[in-house]
Design a protein that fits this description.
The complex is a heterodimer of chains A (290) and B (159).
Chain A: E1 7-10, H1 14-24, E2 28-31, H2 37-42, E3 50-53, E4 63-65, E5 69-73, H3 78-82, H4 85-90, H5 92-98, H6 104-107, H7 112-118, H8 124-131, E6 135-140, E7 143-148, H9 149-152, E8 153-155, E9 158-159, E10 166-173, E11 179-186, E12 196-205, E13 208-217, E14 224-225, H10 227-231, H11 240-253, H12 264-283, H13 285-288
Parallel strand pairs in A: 1-3, 2-3
Antiparallel strand pairs in A: 4-5, 5-10, 6-7, 6-10, 8-9, 11-12, 12-13, 13-14
Helix pairs in contact in A: 5-8, 11-12
Chain B: E1 4-11, E2 14-21, H1 26-33, E3 52-55, E4 58-61, E5 74-76, H2 78-84, H3 88-96, H4 106-119, H5 125-131, H6 143-154
Parallel strand pairs in B: 1-5
Antiparallel strand pairs in B: 1-2, 3-4, 3-5
Classes of the chains: A alpha+beta (290), B alpha+beta (159).
């Protein structure tokens, strides 16, 4: 299908974009990479009057090493994150996630800010942001505010962004020594939305786990951090017994939805499968370091 | 604000200026305004890959970008890269190995594979399949397409 008619406005500065947002209110939509937005427009699931293109605003794209963190601009495209040596070295979880995001032609265009601001519960990057305790940078007319990833996602496609605010970037703490990341998702076809996926960021010393963050996606209306299950890892070494306990715990802790791809009980089962497949290699570096 | 706007871009090496509706997507612009019907329209929501074209050196979905966003860019379509001979080895390998039947996916497949051969010249069969996972082919079962990449590479690799 073709989208309903709309007007197009190219913002060159954030001020431009705020002006357009004020002028058009709810009738406007921000166009970042457009890889989700254009599909919803083509299917007429959304019919905005105006698209505000932020692709030409200077300073919104790029990856910067700021010492303890990497600051990734909102308009940084997936392919540039996928191929970034900085991301590979300091945010391996994001590097691992990238190739699971759709397909090359979509990663060439889609942006990290768009993915996070859209807040699709099946998206990879929101889960990574929570697992890494990233900070979202949000600009409005009155200045910039900073929101922890855990507080940013509020529900199905709902975020902490106000109607006249723009996500300008995300800061990701660099991986600390003694921590490892693992990422896996289950999909019927590579690049499709995951039936369920896991972003794992764990502390491991020798073969003993410490702190752990296990964030599932497409397991609820927003990314779900399974804190109770993650806590089972503390001071333990990897074993089949531990994997079984975690899988059992996830059945209580998760409440995933039913849809055409899988029902809730199947997703709960798959969550246990993901924990096993993701964590076992992290615990056995000689056989499969990630 | 206007729902029509003027855009200027380069398509297959030629400068083009047109007035377009804001809602016209890039692939419809190429097909209906410029008559470049080699890029196909399949699903129109970014799943099938038939509309793949190259914008500023990178492949994109022609249905997930509006023509207005192509203002100031350099666009290459299957017509352009066929004429320059850039992907000749791959095209010949497709013919040799029967890597197409109805041909609907082929232009998008070729542009995707040419990017892959440039970015990952040593890609194995699994990686080739992963790279074209966003390009649907309902005829070949992909086997012959993957074979064709290997044949093209063995011939000296111009993608």
């Amino acid at each position: 299908m073709k989208p309903a008619p709309f007007a197009y406005a190219r913002a060159v500065t954030l001020e431009d974009a705020f002006g357009l947002l004020t002028e058009h209110g709810d009738a406007a939509k921000i166009l970042a990479g457009g890889q989700s937005l254009m599909a919803t427009l083509n299917m007429r699931l959304s019919e905005p009057d105006v698209l505000i293109d932020i692709n030409h605003i200077q300073g919104l794209a790029g990856i910067e090493d700021t010492g303890d963190t990497l600051r990734i601009g909102a308009m940084t495209r997936h392919v540039d994150i996928e191929t970034s040596p900085l991301v590979a070295a300091h945010a391996p979880l994001i590097a691992l996630a990238m190739t699971h995001i759709a397909h090359p032609a979509i990663r060439n265009r889609g942006s990290i800010g768009g993915s996070i601001a859209f807040a699709d519960p099946a998206a990879e990057l929101p889960a990574c942001a929570i697992a890494l305790q990233a900070t979202m940078h949000i600009a409005g007319r009155d200045g910039t505010r900073h929101v922890a990833a855990a507080d940013f996602f509020r529900g199905l496609y709902e975020t902490a962004l106000g109607p006249e605010e723009i996500l300008t970037g995300i800061s990701v703490p660099k991986i600390a020594s003694g921590w490892k990341s693992g990422f896996m998702e289950l999909a019927r076809r590579h690049g499709d939305y995951a039936i369920i996926g896991l972003a794992a960021h764990v502390e491991i010393s020798g073969d003993t786990f410490g702190d752990a963050r296990l964030v599932f996606f497409n397991a609820g209306d927003r990314p779900v951090s399974a804190q109770k299950t993650a806590a089972l890892l503390r001071d333990r070494t990897w074993s089949d017994d531990l994997a079984d306990q975690m899988a059992e715990s996830l059945k209580d802790e998760l409440d995933p939805p039913d849809d055409l791809n899988a029902d809730g009980p199947m997703r709960k089962h798959l969550a246990g499968v993901l924990v096993r497949r993701t964590l076992a290699p992290l615990a056995a570096p000689l056989t499969g370091e990630q | 604000m206007d729902r029509q706007l003027d855009i200027s871009l380069t398509v297959n090496g030629e400068a083009v200026t047109r007035r377009v509706e804001a809602r016209t997507n890039l692939v419809d612009f190429l097909r209906y305004e410029l008559g470049l019907t080699g890029s196909h329209v399949g699903c129109e929501h970014g799943v099938c890959g038939a509309c793949t074209v190259r914008v500023d050196g990178r492949i994109v979905r022609g249905c997930l970008m509006i023509a207005a966003q192509a203002d100031g860019t350099e666009v290459w379509t299957i017509e352009g890269v066929s004429e320059t001979g850039e992907i000749r080895d791959l095209q010949e390998a497709f013919v040799e190995r029967n890597a197409l039947q109805c041909g609907f996916c082929t232009p998008g497949m070729l542009l995707t594979l040419s990017e892959m051969m440039e970015r990952f010249p040593d890609a194995g069969r699994d990686e080739i399949r992963e790279y074209i996972s966003g390009n649907y082919c309902r005829c070949t079962g992909y086997q012959a397409i993957v074979d064709a990449v290997e044949i093209a590479r063995a011939k000296g690799g111009s993608s």
